[in-house]
Amino acid sequence: QVQLMESGGGLVQPGGSLRLSCAASGNIFSIYVMGWYRQAPGKQRELVTTITRGGSTNYADSVKGRFTISIDNAKNTVYLQMNSLKPEDTAVYYCIAAAYWGQGTQVTVSS
């Protein structure tokens, strides 16, 4: 079993920034890829970004150039730095590690 603890969501104005964190614990030795999904109201869940323990990353086109994922292997923690936030980034953001999901953290971008 793997447990994922997310933090860092909240309310921010358009153009602002937020940083999400996801700390993994438990049987983490088999985890090679971690990332973030998001789900906006009335929309399907979408993949935002992934990162391997070696640091290889992928991003959805909608967030390229604005979001940055990073990993601290010593702390088993993944970070998502979100800059230039837009109202359409409003969603519940879920941390993922292999088949495991976090509980989600709300990000709201609104003036």
Helicity range of the residues? Answer: under 10%
- What's the SSE pattern? EEEEEEEEEEE
- Structural Rg: 13 Å
Number of strands: 11
| Separate helix tally | 0
Q: Report the average pLDDT across residues.
A: 95
Question: Which strand-content bin applies to the residues?
Answer: over 45%
Global shape? globular
Quote the distance from N terminus to C terminus.
Answer: 40 Å
- Secondary structural class: mainly beta
Low-confidence stretches: none
Biggest sheet layout: 7 strands, mixed
Describe the structure.
The protein has 111 residues and is mostly beta strands. The protein is 0% helix and 55% strand. It contains no helices and eleven strands. Strand 5 (46-52) and strand 6 (57-59) form a beta hairpin. The protein is globular, with a radius of gyration of 13 Å.
Secondary structure layout plus pairing:
Elements: E1 2-7, E2 10-12, E3 18-26, E4 33-39, E5 46-52, E6 57-59, E7 67-72, E8 77-82, E9 91-97, E10 100-101, E11 105-109
Parallel strand pairs: 2-11
Antiparallel strand pairs: 1-3, 3-8, 4-5, 4-9, 5-6, 7-8, 9-10, 9-11
Features:
mainly beta, 4-stranded antiparallel beta sheet, 11 strands
Structure at a glance:
This protein has strands at residues 2-7, 10-12, 18-26, 33-39, 46-52, 57-59, 67-72, 77-82, 91-97, 100-101, 105-109. With 111 residues, it is an all-beta fold. The strands form 2 sheets. Strands 2, 4, 5, 6, 9, 10 and 11 form a 7-stranded mixed β-sheet that branches.
